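#lab-general

N.A. 3:47 PM
ok so I finally got the sequence cleaned up, no stray characters, all 292 residues accounted for. can someone with queue access submit it? mine expired

B.Y. 3:52 PM
send it over

N.A. 3:53 PM
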Amino acid sequence: MTTVAFIGLGAMGSRMAANLQQAGFKLRVYNRDRAKTKALAEKGAEVAESPAAAVKGAQFALSIVSDDEATREVMLGANGLVGAAAKGCVIIDSSTNTPAIAREVAREAAARGCVYLDAPVSGSLKQAQGRELVFMVGGPQEAFDKAQPLFAAMGRLAKRAGDSGAGATIKLINNMLSGTMTAAVAEAVQIAEAAGVGPEAALEILGEGAAASRLLKGKMPMMFQRDFKPQFQLALMEKDLRYFLGMAQQLDRPTPIAALVRSQFEAARRVSLGGLDACAVFLQVAGEKPPA
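B.Y. 4:20 PM
back already:
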């Protein structure tokens, strides 16, 4: 039986790990909050005391944590995956990071005889639950091919975008587009409400227009209903927009629209909306307080 070390059992990670477990992989899991390991442990997963302990003897490792800092600790820290992984281990990182940290970890992994794939995902809780995630992957073709059974157990598509850092790059582009669309939908909803256009009519008509998308159809009702239960936290979207802008600066490319959108999300985070869904940027746009 193939052993997978799984690091990070948050909202997304717990669902991804459960799907791997259901597909027949043997899991060895680690999470800073040990309580989050309970559901998997009850179904046979082994709970480790550190990422290093989780990866010993594993053929694969998968991590999904919050940012570059957390990734550096999980991968390269004193009890990190890279230093403890067996030669030939494929490390899959589904965190949304900068290309720079992806390339740094890939170099360290290669020096120790294992392989690192930056493989962030597109999709939120519903897609993670239903094995409908899209993996965008950077790294060697051979390791990408070897990891196909894991991708298939968690998602509907895995696409190699190029060498190390390419997965991280396309994910930041994806989230810039998602954040921009979310901010635009927020402006549309406030105008529709102010003009007296009903939510049902707005959703049906705009859902058939040129700007129709899964995001519009999913986030617009949430805004109308003031339902900001987090599927993807606003603070994480703001972080991803910040990473995108940093990447664009390194590439010396202008991104004025993304800069404006990031300022909206940053303002929303600073008034304590960061723990809500990303579509809570509507509250910042409309000048409203969160519902009680």
